[in-house]
């Protein structure tokens, strides 16, 4: 389906000239204008475009911030305050970038959940999915590095706690972990040197992400989009051209998303952050309550659920890496959870568990909180390692429509009363 | 070399302590309830009240400035729109009452000169060490960001928490720090009989641990408002908190004003996009 021929028709002489030398317009037309998209996509499919928008926003606002930001332990906090107070519209740019990080993660969690629910990770979309997991990891690294830059108390203690995780490797090879930590820090403590290198990497990674996004979309356009039924596109009636159909829907989805974004930027810019990060970093004073940004909380809860330090680190990283293997862990022939009456409930409980872990990640690691975090961590892994393989084999899928078109239009799957089928326009 | 390795060892022990027990301190402290106040600068339509900011600055100057700086605030900020908007000449006069270190001059000497609009409001102490030496080891923090740097912990039931979070997002709750500082300033009380108060400490209902080394900074009628408002402790606390909230976020009014226009614009755009989407898809269903 993706190997359809572009219907590009060069108009002007210049376009002809260009088309014979570098047919980039032909390619873009084929990939983003007449590319066939399933006609039954719901609004959850607008989040890929929303994520691309978020990436662009972060890069543009980030470049402007970097013009005013100073990556030294003495000046970082002050320079951010100068941006908020004295740079023209600096408060706006800073808010968009800080809130933007949260919105980016909000969108990516929905995007991933969509993939899980409709089985978008299954053949033939494994590579597309794995590239997605890589993007998620890169986003987390970027978010973590970026949060250190304002050099407030949470920045400083966040870096201290997270980089120190590597010292758990000492349990395997004595001295190795400490060596890695020293190497990451560029010294024997978190300092200006650390900040400077984190800034460098924070500036670099978004461009790496951009590169991987190109591969992600390339892989998507080779295999085509999945859809709520999980069925493949078989006939022309199953699809509509990307422009104007999917494009218009994406634009509206983005429009609503941007409204939400703007609400936080203008009316609750600090809500998603932590008050302690308005206290300048102080290596001598440990904040009573060190918590990462909200979007790391589920993984932070998994880290702390395991009593051993090394075990916690391993569990935390495994929680992400396990995603790479789910195309093969899920044994069901049916993609969409819509037609999987049993699995569906396990999946909804999985989503609930992730939310619960997020909640527990923000609570002190004591008493019942730890016990619950252990329970949900166990379910998190059991879901992928046991439920996915076993339920996939056991379950009888419910009745499915014969085609995408039938699921939308009913009956024969012909657009009712349409004077001309849209794909012929 | 030995100092280096022992330093590293200490660091490792410390790091381990940090990682394994980041919550012990928190867990030890009891949760303190902080009431939410009605602030006229809060929420979607809240804006600073210029008169209140002027009164608040007066409170700061007369009752806090001898111990706390607001060094991220410049004199020029006091005349800018969205703030107290004092008369420019009055602020110039005020700035000139401070002696600011400047230099070096052509002879390589540092010198003192009267303050200008472009200077920061000078802090009472040259550095943290001096402040601590005066206050028995306690440090009166700079107040420029204080209402942003404090928050309030949720204390209701677990099941109501998600709804509470949602409500605060929809309401744009940003005043936790203001609520806390107000509670702190009005929270001085007689210590309960069984409470052991250390020497030179005050009992305070809002402060974590209830022992604070700051003496009660406000007392009824301690200052005389220029606009004749009665100077009750409650009034002064509200005014100074409003002023400090502005000091932490001098662009708030501009932000909300622009935000209103942006939301209207985006809302309208979203409607148009929805209409266009409906028309395009009408043929496809
Ligand atoms: C920088 C972050 C990301 C960007 C910019 C991005 C972008 C996109 C875009 C534009 C699409 C096509 C539109 C759509 O189906 O929504 C897409 C599809 C997809 N993405 Fe992502 N993505 C990102 C992260 C991820 C992550 C973290 C995962 C999973 C771990 C993922 C998995 C997928 C899958 C499976 C599809 C195909 C969905 C389907 O056809 O049903 N993506 N992505």
Distance between the termini of chain B: 77 Å
**Sheet with most strands: strand arrangement of chain B:** 1-2
Helix content range of the residues of chain B, please? 40-55%
Helix content of chain A: 55-70%
What is the CATH H-level superfamily of the largest domain in chain B?
Cytochrome c-like domain
What assembly state would you assign to the polypeptide chains in this entry? heterodimer
Structural class by SSE content of chain A: mainly alpha
The number of E-state strands of chain A comes to: 2
Order of strands across the main sheet of chain A: 1-2
Largest interface: A-B, 60 and 59 residues
Number of strands of chain B: 4
Count of structural domains of chain B: 2
The structure class of chain B reads: mainly alpha
Mean pLDDT score of chain A, rounded?
94
Order of helices and strands of chain B: HHHHEEHHHHEEHH
Low-confidence stretches of chain B: 1-28
Number of separate helices of chain B: 10
Supply the CATH architecture of the largest domain in chain B: Orthogonal Bundle
Q: Would you mind describing this structure in some detail?
A:
The complex is a heterodimer of chains A (425) and B (285). Chain A has helices at 13-21, 24-32, 47-68, 76-85, 90-117, 126-148, 153-164, 176-185, 192-223, 242-267, 297-305, 309-329, 343-361, 367-394, 404-409; strands at residues 36-38, 239-241. Chain A has 15 helices and 2 strands. The model of chain A is unreliable at 416-425 (pLDDT under 50). In chain A, helix 4 crosses helix 5, helix 6 (126-148) runs antiparallel to helix 9 and helix 13 runs antiparallel to helix 14. Chain A is globular and about 70 Å long. Chain A is mainly α. With 285 residues, chain B is mostly helical. In chain B, strands 1-2 form a two-stranded antiparallel ribbon. A two-stranded antiparallel sheet of chain B has the order 3-4. In chain B, helix 3 (50-64) crosses helix 9 and helix 8 (176-185) runs antiparallel to helix 9 (233-248). The longest helix of chain B is centred in the C-terminal third of the chain and has 31 residues, at 252-282. Chain B is globular, with a radius of gyration of 24 Å. The model of chain B is unreliable at 1-28 (pLDDT under 50). The chains are: A mainly alpha (425), B mainly alpha (285). The structure holds protoporphyrin IX containing FE. Protoporphyrin IX containing FE binds next to helix 3, helix 5, helix 6 and helix 9 of chain A.
């Amino acid at each position: 389906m993706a190997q359809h021929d572009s219907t590009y028709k060069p108009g002007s002489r210049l376009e002809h000239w260009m088309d014979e030398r570098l047919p980039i317009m032909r390619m873009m037309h084929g990939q983003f204008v007449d590319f066939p998209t399933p006609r039954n996509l719901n609004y959850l499919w607008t989040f890929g475009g929303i994520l691309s928008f978020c990436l662009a926003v972060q890069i543009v606002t980030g470049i402007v911030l970097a013009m005013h930001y100073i990556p030294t332990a003495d000046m970082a906090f002050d320079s951010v305050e100068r941006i908020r107070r004295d740079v023209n519209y600096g408060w706006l740019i800073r808010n968009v970038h800080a809130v933007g990080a949260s919105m980016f993660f909000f969108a990516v969690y929905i995007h991933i959940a969509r993939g899980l629910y409709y089985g978008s990770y299954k053949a033939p979309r494994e590579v597309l999915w794995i590239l997605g997991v890589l993007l998620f990891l890169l986003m987390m690294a970027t978010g973590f590095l970026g949060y250190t830059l304002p050099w407030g108390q949470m920045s400083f203690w966040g870096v201290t706690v997270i980089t120190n995780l590597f010292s758990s490797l000492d349990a395997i090879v004595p001295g190795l972990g400490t060596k890695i930590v020293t190497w990451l820090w560029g010294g024997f403590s978190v300092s200006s040197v650390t900040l400077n290198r984190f800034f460098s990497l924070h500036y670099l990674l978004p461009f790496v992400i951009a590169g991987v996004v190109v591969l992600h979309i390339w892989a998507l356009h080779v295999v085509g989009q999945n859809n709520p039924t999980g069925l493949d596109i078989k006939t022309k009636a199953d699809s509509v051209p990307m422009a104007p159909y999917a494009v218009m829907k994406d634009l509206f989805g983005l429009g609503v998303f941007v409204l939400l974004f703007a609400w936080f930027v203008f009316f609750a810019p600090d809500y998603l952050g932590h008050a302690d990060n308005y206290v300048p970093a102080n290596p001598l004073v440990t904040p009573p309550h060190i918590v990462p940004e909200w979007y790391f909380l589920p993984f932070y809860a998994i880290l702390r659920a395991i009593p051993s330090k090394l075990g916690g680190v391993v569990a935390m990283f495994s929680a992400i890496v396990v995603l790479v293997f789910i195309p093969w862990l899920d044994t069901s022939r049916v993609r969409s959870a819509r037609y999987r009456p049993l699995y569906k409930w396990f999946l909804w409980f999985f989503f609930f568990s992730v939310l619960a872990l997020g909640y527990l990640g923000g609570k002190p690691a004591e008493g019942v909180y730890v016990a619950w975090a252990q329970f949900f961590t166990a379910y998190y892994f059991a879901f992928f390692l046991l439920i996915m393989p076993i339920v996939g084999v056991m379950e009888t899928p419910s009745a499915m429509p014969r085609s995408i078109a039938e699921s939308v239009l009913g009956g024969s799957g012909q657009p009712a009363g349409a004077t001309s089928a849209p794909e012929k326009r | 070399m030995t100092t280096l390795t022992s330093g590293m060892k200490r660091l490792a022990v410390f790091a381990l302590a940090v990682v394994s027990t980041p919550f012990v301190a928190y867990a030890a402290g009891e949760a303190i309830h902080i009431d939410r106040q009605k602030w006229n600068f809060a929420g979607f339509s809240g804006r600073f009240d210029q008169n209140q900011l002027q009164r608040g600055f007066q409170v700061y100057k007369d009752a806090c400035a001898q111990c706390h700086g607001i060094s991220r605030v410049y004199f020029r900020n006091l005349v800018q729109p969205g703030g107290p908007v004092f008369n420019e000449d009055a602020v110039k006069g005020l700035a000139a009452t401070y002696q600011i270190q400047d230099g070096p001059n052509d002879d390589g000497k540092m010198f003192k000169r009267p303050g200008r609009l472009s200077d920061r409001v000078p802090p009472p102490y040259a550095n943290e060490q001096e402040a601590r030496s005066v206050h028995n080891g306690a440090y009166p923090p700079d107040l420029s960001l204080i209402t942003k740097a404090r928050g309030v912990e949720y204390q209701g039931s677990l099941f109501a928490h998600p709804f509470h979070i949602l409500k605060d997002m929809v309401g744009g709750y940003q005043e936790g720090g203001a609520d806390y500082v107000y509670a702190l300033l009005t929270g001085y009380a007689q210590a309960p009989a069984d409470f052991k108060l250390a020497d030179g400490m005050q009992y305070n209902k809002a402060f974590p641990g209830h022992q604070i080394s700051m003496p009660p900074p406000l007392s009824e009628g301690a200052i005389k408002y220029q606009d004749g408002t009665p100077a009750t402790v409650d009034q002064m606390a509200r005014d100074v908190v409003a002023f400090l909230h502005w000091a932490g976020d001098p662009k708030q009014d501009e932000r909300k004003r622009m935000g209103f226009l942006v939301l209207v614009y985006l809302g309208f755009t979203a409607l148009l996009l929805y209409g266009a989407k409906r028309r395009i898809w009408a043929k496809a269903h």
